[in-house]
Amino acid sequence: MPNKGVPVLDVKDLKTVFHTRSGEVHAVNSVSFYLRPGELLGVVGESGSGKSVTMMSLIGLLPSPPAEVRGGRVLFDGEDLLNVREERLRELRGARIGFVFQDPMTSLNPVFTVGYQIMEPLRKHMGMDKRQARVRAAELLALVGIPDADKRLSDYPHQFSGGMRQRVMIAIALACDPEVLIADEPTTALDVTIQAQILELMKDLRDKLGMAVIWITHDLGVIAGIADRVMVMYGGQVVEQAPVKELFGNPQHPYTRALLETIPSVTGERTERLHVIEGQPPILAAAPSACTFRARCVYASDRCACENPPRLTVGPAHDAACFWDPATGQPRNTEPTHTGAPNAG
Amino acid sequence: MFTYTVRRLLLAIPTLLIISLIIFLLLDLAPGDPTAQLPLTIPPEVKEKIRQSLGLGEPIHVRYFLWLKQFLVAEPLHVFDNLFGTHFADGMQRVISWQTRSPVADIVAQRLPQTLWVVGMSYVVGVLIALPIGIISAYKQYSWFDQIGTFISMLGFSVPTFFTGVLLIVIFAVNLGWFPSIYDTTHVVDSWDAFVFQVRQMIMPVMVLALYNAAQISRFMRASMLDNLGQDYVRTARAKGMSEKVVVLIHVLRNSMIPVITVIALGVPQIFGGAIITEQVFKVNGLGQLLITAIYANDIPMVQTLTFIFAVLIVLFNLIADILYGILDPRIRYD
Fold first, then answer.
1. Where is the chain membrane-spanning (chain A) (predicted)?
2. Exposure check for chain B: N or C terminus, fewer CB within 10 A?
């Protein structure tokens, strides 16, 4: 349920670089996006497109070295997260910004009880004592649909199944009622039925609690079912951004179109081979000065090799970083859009 | 856990019996003669009589079972008698050293404190040094601290104790004169000054052994910490807003200690085995030195008893290591 308002998170020109032995790798290149309160923003892209790194950069979760957030601005509730002390970041992490990670099998500490791990942020951020935290932890477990919550608090992670562990992770992320929840491929490691359960749960929780969610995935089917708005990333850049219906109905960027074509159809004639996007995603040793997708793009022209396309407005609340216009089959001529938040109101 | 422990203890009985048999057979097979060091003027018939009197005339299985009876029945009963003033063990033959003609257990009891003080202390000091070094080295991997730590560990691990021991003696006892060069076992601690002297004479042997122990354990600790620092749950802990202190010293350390505790527990029996070389260098007449002299003198009851005590300790501490493992790691359940 997207409701208009001042964005809770506003990211501008975020740049992250990894220092490796073979030189620099530019993983996030001038990424800008915003997140409105209560909105579910889907982030898609293939592995290595910078989805996770972008979100980790926001909140200082990347190990540094090798990572270095080189520039940009991350406004969260009027505060630039790239310019605050580590101590302040810690106050926000887990309290007002929650995380759910990909692999629930390894994301929980195996030697502490589930209860202890849920109670940790409660005691640190909410100043609860042990008893209050335990009561709240049991509520949280019940909220994410774990039966017999009170008893299961003293169980260890290995006594839970994968799906149950992911529920525990979600309970931890939600412990302090965050305004933003960043879910980094939360269903990738789960089998399909459990995926569906977790998706249902997340939808339900968002309706109940009203937090904004950033949902990172490479599963377009998941995005179609859950997101309000979608951001497609490639080569550490946002290449297309649109409301979910618009994106699936009217994709503008060749990469998005190619991604959508890779989804096998369950109806109609079975294709001989699954569609793939030929080629490999780029590894950027420098900030891109040309379109990063041109090597794999069938519509690439000379301009793509000498100029990195800016994000151009192509429809209402819809922008794409491409010179080619699928409607006309010709290069388009539009002014660059503002890529940040729209004005409130 | 309890039934597991009981089962393991019961299983230890046949294990130890087999070990004792192997030790006994090996010592019996080894060349050597307890009368070999007696003067050549003693005629062979007399030597033979001496051998007979030591019980060597009996067949091997008789000797083995006699030793078992002495060690497992007579010795514990003696201890019991001494504690409670009873007379159960009267007339029972104890395990007697061929060198000194006194009960082996009494000699061991005399030597044990020296070994425990010096070697045990060095182990404690070594562990206490090693754990923080391992933790910091891993947390600040490839920093100057880690590089120096790695270098010193390599030195401590590869330079033998007979070299570091002598080096310390040359520097601190001969040139600087800070510490005595040999350990005085007869020293009695009855005043503050005596205590200070005891500490001073302990410092060098303890340091030599501690360096070696710390080198080993700090590497284990570092490796284990590194294994865990990259785990996903560490990222989760950070994402929860936990401070670095909590992340490292609670989340990572608890996991990292699991293998390290096992290594530390398995190292404890070595303390009782003494540090033969270091004890020689500093003239600490502990168990290591006792074992060496007993081997030279073909004192089979002494060697047999000491070796068997080490075997018992090794079996025991293996069990303790396994139990600690089960306590520290909730994923391991033995029942």
1. none
2. C
| Residue B203 maps to a domain | yes
At residue A333 the predicted structure's pLDDT band, cuts being 50, 70 and 90, is low
CA A68 → CA A16, A87, A315, B84, distances in Å?
Answer: 6, 18, 35, 73
Q: Which of A90, A106, A158 sits opposite B231 (nearest CB)?
A: A106
Domain containing residue B167: CATH number: 1.10.3720
Selection from A1, A42, A59 nearest residue A216 by Cα: A42
The whole domain housing B117 covers: 108-284
CB contact under 8 A, B242 and A120: yes
Asked if B254's CB is within 8 angstroms of A111's CB, the reply is yes
Furthest C-alpha separation in chain A: 66
Domain membership flag for residue B256: yes
Position B145 pLDDT exceeds 90: yes
CA B252 from centre of chain: 30
Q: Do B255 and A111 touch (CB under 8 A)?
A: yes
Any A CB within 8 A of B242 CB: yes
Write out chain A residues lying below 8 Å of B328, CB-based.
111
Give the contacts of B146 (CB within 8 A, at least 6 positions apart): B136, B137, B138, B140, B222
B231 touches A at CB < 8 Å:
yes
- As given in the structure block, the two tokens for residue A82 are 């790239």
Contacts of A98 in chain B (CB under 8 A): 239
Burial of A110 (0-12, 13-18, 19+ CB in 10 A): middle
Domains, chain A, in order of start with CATH, read 9-234 (3.40.50.300)
Q: Which pLDDT score is estimated for A344?
A: 39
Grouping H, G, I as helix, E, B as strand and the rest as coil, residue A154 is coil
User: Average pLDDT in the B174-179 region?
Assistant: 90
Are B232 and A101 inside 8 Å of each other by CB? Answer: yes
A216-237 per-position pLDDT tens digit: 988 888 888 889 999 999 988 9
- Residue B97 near residue B301, CB atoms below 8 Å: yes
